[in-house]
Design goal:
The complex is a heterodimer. By secondary structure, chain A is mainly α. Chain A folds into two domains: 24-122, RNA polymerase sigma factor, region 2, helix turn helix motif (Rna Polymerase Sigma Factor, Chain: A, Orthogonal Bundle); 143-209, Orthogonal Bundle (Arc Repressor Mutant, subunit A), CATH 1.10.10.10. Chain A has nine helices and no strands. The longest helix of chain A has 26 residues, at 100-125. The radius of gyration of chain A is 32 Å and the shape is elongated. The chains are: A mainly alpha, B mainly alpha.
């Protein structure tokens, strides 16, 4: 067995390799734990600046843990926010004489694993709808109730007095602003407002009278 | 919602908090409450009439000490486990005491089997036993739930199992101190059965009840982030 001391490297001709961490946040985690501990102690006493500095600094670290479990998915953000909120709600359990890193990592692990578990449970219960679940192959054919409600509304608008009908068409259906509608119809803004108000009232009456 | 907005909201809501006492101190507070409850019960009801004779029997003494030790160690374990960075093996702490306690009940069961009198138990005593059971376990459970509320988002099941064991052992200790339950079947039902029931209830509903208590006693999340 060759010895691997500094004086006698096993492969003297090999180029010297330096280990470079790809996640600087983890490096910071080990270096800055005492800082984090001090920041958390100040945050517990109500120092908001220290608290903001702490949360901003630990966020990438929590994110790297979340990515390890969840991959780079949309759930990572949810997980990070959940961990931050849990840290907030149980911050009184941190004892500043103990290291901050293990405390934070334990919370992050439990919350993220909890989220994974919840997510898997949801997935096993949910089935994505495919075309076979539809009654008819044509998409509009399956929207029967929506269509009939739409028809009823169009019919009711047609039955309104002309000024109210125009007001509701311009302001609600074409989504014009009050100024634009006023310019287009030559009526004052106040008159348009009153007409719309009355139109909505009348429509409500008309649609209630007609069972959809 | 963006993460930076969440941080803003949390910082805005950062009021000073009082740090928790060490788990040993918190367990001692809970045990002091248990001692008070037991003391009051003893004053109100009186000790069992044959306590002097029973204390001469080593099995009874070992069983009582086993129950008490289980209660103390399980309480300490649950307070320790409620902290995020405590290792999981704290759950094993009460097991040796639990083994001693359970084995003495089994031993009493075997030796008393022959001398057991079928009419040793009166109905009135059973009802009073049940009252003692509730008077001990209900206040202790409520105190424990409130003291352990911050464990709700972390490991509610382990914490409530240990807490439930502490309550069950303490209740059993109270029952043995106050009521003369000599019929072996009754010992089994009251001691082990009730202990198992409380521990099972604690692990089944511990998660939900911890969350319920936490939501009411610990509303420290800012309004826009809760729910």
């Amino acid at each position: 067995m060759p010895s691997c001391s500094k004086e006698n490297p096993p492969y003297p001709e090999a180029p010297k390799l330096t280990l470079v961490s790809s996640t600087p946040s983890i490096q910071r985690a080990s270096r800055g734990q005492s800082d984090w501990s001090a920041l958390m102690a100040r945050a517990q006493d109500g120092d908001r600046e220290a608290y903001r500095a702490l949360l901003t600094e630990v966020e990438p670290y929590i994110r790297s843990i979340a990515i390890k479990y969840l991959g780079r998915s949309a759930e990572v953000d949810d997980a990070v926010q959940d961990v931050l909120m849990t840290v907030h709600s149980i911050r009184q359990t941190y004892d500043p004489t103990r290291p901050f890193g293990p405390w934070l990592v334990a919370i992050a692990h439990r919350r993220i694993i909890d989220q994974l578990r919840r997510h898997t449970r949801h997935k096993t219960r949910e089935v994505e709808l495919s075309n076979e679940h539809e009654t008819f192959a044509e998409a509009p054919a399956n929207l029967f109730t929506e269509k009939s409600a739409e028809h009823a509304l169009v019919g009711a608008i047609d039955k309104l007095p002309p000024d109210q009908r125009d007001a509701i068409r311009m302001l609600k259906l074409k989504e014009m602003s009050l100024q634009e509608a006023s310019r287009a119809s030559g009526r004052s803004i106040a008159a348009l407002k009153v007409a719309t108000h009355r139109a909505v009232k009348n429509l409500r009456k008309l649609l209630k009278g007609e069972p959809s | 919602m963006k993460t930076s907005d969440v941080i803003d909201a949390l910082v805005d809501a950062a009021v000073p908090v009082r740090r928790l006492h060490p788990p040993l101190v918190r367990a001692a507070i809970w045990l002091a409450l248990a001692a008070t409850v037991l003391g009051l019960l003893c004053v109100a009801h009186g000790l069992r009439p044959d306590i002097a004779a029973r204390l001469q029997q080593p099995v009874f003494v070992v069983s009582m000490l086993g129950a008490l030790a289980t209660a103390v160690l399980a309480a300490l374990a649950s307070f320790k486990l409620s902290l995020p960075d405590a290792p999981r093996w704290w759950l094993l702490l009460p097991l040796p005491a639990l083994a001693v306690w359970v084995s003495t009940i089994g031993y009493g069961c075997l030796t008393d089997w022959v001398s057991m009198s079928p009419d040793g138990m009166r109905m009135g005593e059973a009802a009073r036993c049940f009252a003692t059971l509730l008077l001990t376990s209900v206040p202790l459970s409520i105190a424990m739930l409130i003291m352990l509320r911050h464990a709700a988002p972390l490991r509610p099941t382990a914490v409530s199992a240990a807490g439930g064991l502490a309550i069950a052992a303490m209740t059993s200790f109270a029952l043995a101190l106050i009521h003369d339950l000599d019929a072996t079947i009754m010992i089994l039902i009251w001691n082990l059965g009730m202990a198992a029931l409380i521990a099972a209830l604690a692990s089944a509903f511990g998660r939900t009840s911890l969350k319920w208590v936490a939501a009411r006693v610990m509303p420290s999340l800012p309004l826009q982030l809760s729910g």
